[in-house]
Amino acid sequence: MRVQTKLTLLFLFMTFFGSMLIGSIAYYMVKRDVVRASAEHTFKSFNIDFGTYVKSYGGVKAAMESEKFDAFVERIHRLIPSDQGREVDDASYSTRWQERLFGYLVLSGQGVVLHPARGFRVGDKPPPEIVDQALGIEVDGKTVAKAVLVGETVLTEQDERYLAFVRHSLVTGLIIAVGVSSLLCLVFGRMLSSVLRNLAEAIRLMRANRKEVCQVEVVSDDELGLLTEYFNQMNVELAKAHVELRELAIRDPLTNLYNRRHFDEQARQFYESASRYGQPLSLMIGSLDDLKKINDDFSYEIGDLVLEKVAEIMSGVTRKSDVVARYGDEEMVVLFANTDKENAAVSCENIRKAIESYPWGGFAPNLVVTMSIGLCDNTGHSSSAAMFSKADQLMHTARADGRNRVACD
Fold first, then answer.
1. What pTM was estimated for this model as a whole?
2. Residues 98-119: pLDDT tens digits?
3. How many whole angstroms from its chain centre is CA 259?
4. Kind and range of the H or E run holding 337
5. Rounded distance between C-alpha atoms, residue 72 and residue 49, angstroms
6. For the chain, which domains are there?
7. What pLDDT digit, counting tens, does each position of 244-298 carry?
8. Helix (H) or strand (E) holding 73
9. Cβ atoms 332, 310 nearer than 8 A
10. Separation of alpha carbons 23 and 169, rounded Å
């Protein structure tokens, strides 16, 4: 499963769960307030009815002895005509307290039941937890009794319609929230996964071509942006390290010239190109004369200094397009690309003279350094190795003819 899909599903689940939780809490709070308001309104209506009942007979005891409270309420609510000559409408007084599955228990000041409700009879003494919840019923500013709700408040049809409307609104809001969140999740999920895909692609390219620096655009300043920035830095360092390692692999550690392996590879490529396109190619091998004697007479440290300086001299008098390498202990080689024998011979002579004329006395008194050189330019040989073999023969010819000279094919 893709990261984008996982993120989208996670965001959708969190949105749905969060919306359900918030909606449930909101509905619970609304219903609680509606029930509380309904209970307060019902008690107020009951208080009015009971106060009227007591006031009509001049006291609680006289009212109880004269007429039952339920009968009194039934009579005044349905039988008494209004000032306009019609019966009083049910809405003029609330009768919910006697029509629902709850009731008000009327208590005396001592907590004795005066008006029964929900299993309690006249004369009973309810538990303290019920008595403590009782509220006073006032007539002309005086508390004549107490009343407490027993049972659960049952909402009116109007209240139920209101709560149904609230539920419908919350469900609609939930659907809209999930829809909008789905769209946002897709957008942000795509943005997040886009950064990760770019990083993955950059890593793939970096693995395929370690010399290339693959940079990813930093599009944010969050953790992903920081990760991208660190990746870019790491990529630059790895590419640089790869170049350095490659250079170390193809360089001679003492002279910093190319090594034998790299020279052979370059010679093969240049030979194939010269043979294919008919271009000139020259190859020289130079051997330092009496390097072993220099090591024996002046020390290996002086011999190493001589090799380093000879490498520096040869690099200085050749072109950047020429491939200069250390091939053996005392052999130096140069590949002159697109160069004929005459021009290559001039370069070889310049190398020989530069080495011979260098003030070697600064390294050690009486130190003399020369080089014998063999040069081959015949691309008619079967391979670059064959050209190298011919140049090696010519180098030995130069040494046999007295050293410190150039022998050409």
1. 0.50
2. 444 357 888 888 888 888 887 8
3. 45
4. strand 331-337
5. 9
6. 3-158 (no CATH), 260-408 (3.30.70.270)
7. 677 778 999 999 999 999 999 999 999 999 999 999 999 999 999 999 999 999 9
8. helix 69-78
9. yes
10. 10
